Amino acid sequence: MAGLAFFIAAIVLGTSVEALSPILIVPGLMGSQLFSRPNPCSGSNCLWKGLWVGTDLCFSTASALDKLSLEYNEVANTYSNKSGVEIKASGFGETCKVEYLITSPEEMSCALQLPVGNYFHTFVDYFVDNRGYQRGKSIRAAPYDWRLAADQLYVRGYYAKVKSLIEEMYSSNGGRKVTLVAHSMGGPVTLFFLNNVVTQQWKNTYIYAFVPIAGAWSGGNKILLAQMSGMKPSELTPGVQQVCNFPSDLVLRLRNTLRSLESIWWLFPKPSVWGNAVLVTTPKRSYTANDYEALFKDMGYTQGFKMYTRTSTINAGFTAPDVPVYCFYGTDVQTAESFVYDQGFPDSQPTRIVYGNGDGSVNVKSAEVCLKWKNDQGNFVSKSFSGAEHGAIVQNSAVLRAVESVVTSLV
Fold first, then answer.
1. CA 247 → CA 50, 56, 57, 71, 348, distances in Å?
2. Could you confirm whether 184 is annotated as catalytic?
3. Which residue in 90, 184, 218, 260 is the catalytic one?
4. Known catalytic residue: 44?
5. How far apart are CA 64 and CA 42, in angstroms?
6. Active-site residue identified among 151, 359, 361, 366
7. Does the global pTM surpass 0.85?
């Protein structure tokens, strides 16, 4: 009814839905549904089963975490799934698999998507109901395997699919340029695409605007905590705990999985952003972002420095994308900034966490990396939203109105 009301209002007021910029959503870390199946498989074993976030993760956590883990080949310098399992992000081009985080038991159509674990549902509904957008046509999504960083996404063909999808959206929406709305890690993922995959001429033709929301340009410092001492999934992805009663021993088990994921190393706090600020303190010494090699050695996990180093050059320098940018981010939410340990380091939780400004996950220093683009390119706007928490920012009414003002400025 709300969508119908929009069309009636459009006739009366002279506003045309055809004048709006189509929206492509690029979700953040852990923001795409993942499905798995045995590899090789046969018969009914070839059905794709919900993994993130699925019942296996909720009730058979050890098995699911093992499936989620990646294997890193130092010689080939590449990542692969664990032997015997195949994993994919579901619903490319559709919004339903990013509207909700909880998967159906088996991969199903959008009509059968479980309405649990709201992520982008409020966002999509807002533009469908208030501006007449159509799912599958003028508002779509590009979910991806969030275990990987941009380089491996590129190798596996993700960006070629994104490029084709944008061209398709442009054509099917009357030659209107597309607005890229990216949340959290989706910001760096999209920045890589704009700076390394497509030409300036292509961007001038197909891209109306880039709207990073809570961009994790320099990650979030609590990623350090996850790799040192572990965290619960609910602490990384708010809302998951609503449907999954995770066991008490999950923290260290999850740490092992997180240490295997390329994306987590990519989201480490960058030395170019944090400089010589102390991020970790133990009875032995203090560590800055320039001391990761020593930190991993003292953690007894020297491979960590190799895995961090191989991702540290991806998006290095944070080059401006040379498209109109509207950088939105949350502030004034208590956000972990540094960690103080006693003799239990690293397997025990820190005895004290020092908090600073941010959105609860991404520190302001990381979110404001985009501000450097103001001097590097034209067409740059930034806006902070006080109290907007990281996961919920894409449901925040003020943020929705701000994005609306971007896509409707064609009118």
1. 20, 13, 11, 25, 17
2. yes
3. 184
4. no
5. 21
6. 359
7. yes
